[in-house]
TrEMBL record:
The keyword Metal-binding applies. Its cofactor is [4Fe-4S] cluster. SMART domains: Elp3. Residues 25-244 form the Radical SAM core domain. The keyword Ribonucleoprotein does not apply. This is Radical SAM protein. Keywords: Iron, Iron-sulfur, Metal-binding, S-adenosyl-L-methionine. It holds the Pfam family Radical_SAM. It comes from Roseateles flavus. SUPFAM superfamilies: Radical SAM enzymes.
C-alpha cells in the first residue's frame, strides 16, 4: 500500500504536490498518522512493502488503536490514513474510523478495492472522508503485480459503491523504473470511473518488494519523467475530467526552495514538526516518516507505552537529533545536484549512517509514572 493518500489536500496540487503552502510536511499534507491495523490481505502482491498476505494474522486491537488516536490528536495529528494489509479485512474498521472522526480527524483508507461489497461499504462509508484504490497500470501489469487475473476489472466494477454514496475517491499508482508510460492509461481510467485524483507513489523497496522487484525502484531521471508526464496530463486532462495528478517526488528546484520545510530545527516544539507522517505498524512499532528508517530511529512500541510517553522520550533523545542530521545531510546532497528529482523519504533513509543504526535509546520511565488511559489498559487486556 502507498504511504498515504493526499490528492485533494491542497488545491493546485497538480504535479508539484510535495510542497504546498500551508501544508504540514514534505508530503504536502497536514500531520497524518498512518495506521496498519493488520497484515491480513486477500492478495500477496509482488510490490507489497508490508509483506502482507492471506496467511498473516498480526493485527492491533481496537481499544489500543483508540488510545493511540487520542494521543495523536492531542499531539496535533489531523488526518488518519488506514492501510494494511487490506483494511477492509480489519473487522473493527468502522469503529476505528468513527473514533478518528469524533476526534476531528479527516479519515482516509487505502484499499485494493476487491472487497468493496455493499454490506462492508455501508458500514464504512458514513465514517470515511476519502478512499484510495491501488491501480498499478494497464490491466496486464496490474493483474500481474496482484497475482490475480481479472483483479483490475473487478476493482473497477466495485467502484460503483463509493460513487453511489458520493464518497470522494482516487487511485494510487506505484511508479517503478519501468512504467511511467502507463500513467496516462491510469489517469484515463480515473477520469472514466469518477476518480478525483491519481497519486503517483514511487516503489518502496521494503518487505516483499525488496525480494521480488529489486532494481525496479525509480531513479531520479524516472521521477523527473513522472513529474513532467503528470504536468502534461494535467494540462491535457484536468479541465476536461477534473482528475488531479500528484507525484510524491521533489524536483531539485523544490528542494532548493524549501529547505526550511524539509529540515526542521532540533529540538522541535512537538512531534509533528519532526514527524509530519507518523507510522504505526501492525506489530505496534511507531516510526517517523517512513518504513525505510532503521529501527534505532523509531519511537518504540505502543504495546509498551502510550504514544504520548513514546513521543516525549523520542523528542529529547539522540534518535530524533540524528534524524534531523540525516535530513540535513539529505538536503545538502540533493541541493548539490546529485539527481534531478527525488522521493524525499527514501533519500533520507538512505543517508542514515550505519553507526546510527546502533544508537542507544534511553529507557522509558517506570510504568507507574506513565500516563495510561483506560482505553489503552483495555487494549492490553484484550491482548493478554
Ligand atoms: S493489496 Fe496492498 S496490502 Fe495487500 S498484498 Fe497487495 S500491496 Fe500488500
Amino acid at each position: 500500500m502507498a504511504e498515504n493518500f493526499a490528492p485533494w489536500t491542497a488545491p493546485g496540487a497538480i504535479a508539484r504536490p510535495a510542497l504546498q503552502a500551508g501544508c504540514g510536511g514534505p508530503t504536502g499534507v497536514a500531520p497524518i498518522i498512518q495506521l496498519h491495523p493488520t497484515r491480513l490481505c486477500n492478495l500477496a502482491c509482488a510490490h507489497c512493502y508490508t509483506s502482507s498476505g492471506p496467511r498473516e494474522t498480526q493485527q492491533l486491537p481496537l481499544p489500543l488503536l483508540r488510545a493511540v488516536l487520542d494521543d495523536a490528536a492531542a499531539l496535533g495529528y489531523r488526518q488518519l490514513a488506514v492501510s494494511g494489509g487490506e483494511p477492509l479485512l480489519y473487522e473493527a474498521l468502522p469503529g476505528l474510523l468513527q473514533h478518528a472522526r469524533r476526534l476531528g480527524m479527516l479519515t482516509s483508507l487505502t484499499s485494493n478495492g476487491l472487497l468493496l461489497s455493499p454490506q462492508r461499504w455501508a458500514a464504512i462509508a458514513p465514517h470515511l472522508d476519502r478512499l484510495a484504490i491501488s491501480v498499478d497500470g494497464r490491466e496486464t501489469t496490474h493483474d500481474a503485480l496482484r497475482g490475480q487475473a481479472g483483479a483490475l476489472a473487478r476493482t473497477l466494477r466495485l467502484l460503483a459503491q463509493p460513487r453511489a454514496t458520493g464518497t470522494p475517491f482516487g487511485f494510487i499508482f506505484t511508479l517503478t523504473q519501468h512504467n511511467v508510460d502507463e500513467l496516462e492509461d491510469v489517469v484515463g481510467l480515473a477520469a472514466a470511473h469518477g476518480a478525483q485524483g491519481v497519486q503517483v507513489h514511487p516503489l518502496t523497496l521494503h518487505g516483499r518488494a525488496r525480494e521480488t522487484l529489486a532494481g525496479a525502484r525509480p531513479d531520479g531521471q524516472e521521477l523527473l519523467a513522472a513529474i513532467v508526464e503528470a504536468q502534461r496530463l494535467a494540462q491535457a486532462l484536468q479541465t476536461r475530467s477534473g482528475v488531479r495528478v500528484q507525484v510524491d517526488a521533489l524536483s531539485q528546484d523544490q528542494i532548493l526552495a524549501h529547505r526550511e520545510r524539509l529540515v526542521p530545527a532540533w529540538p522541535a516544539p512537538g512531534l509533528t514538526a519532526l514527524a509530519p507522517v507518523l507510522v504505526l505498524q501492525s506489530d505496534g512499532q511507531l516510526l517517523p516518516l517512513t518504513h525505510e528508517l532503521p529501527r534505532a530511529l523509531w519511537l518504540g512500541s505502543v504495546h509498551e507505552a502510550p504514544l504520548k510517553a513514546l513521543a516525549a522520550r523520542w523528542l529529547h533523545s539522540s534518535a530524533s537529533r540524528r534524524l534531523v542530521q540525516a535530513l540535513e545531510r539529505t538536503w545538502q546532497a540533493l541541493a548539490e545536484g546529485a539527481q534531478p528529482a527525488a522521493y524525499w523519504y527514501d533519500e533520507v533513509a538512505a543517508r542514515v549512517r550505519p553507526a546510527e543504526v546502533h544508537v542507544p535509546v534511553p529507557p522509558l520511565p517506570s510504568r507507574g509514572l506513565m500516563p495510561r488511559g483506560p482505553a489503552l489498559a483495555q487494549g492490553r487486556a484484550a491482548q493478554a
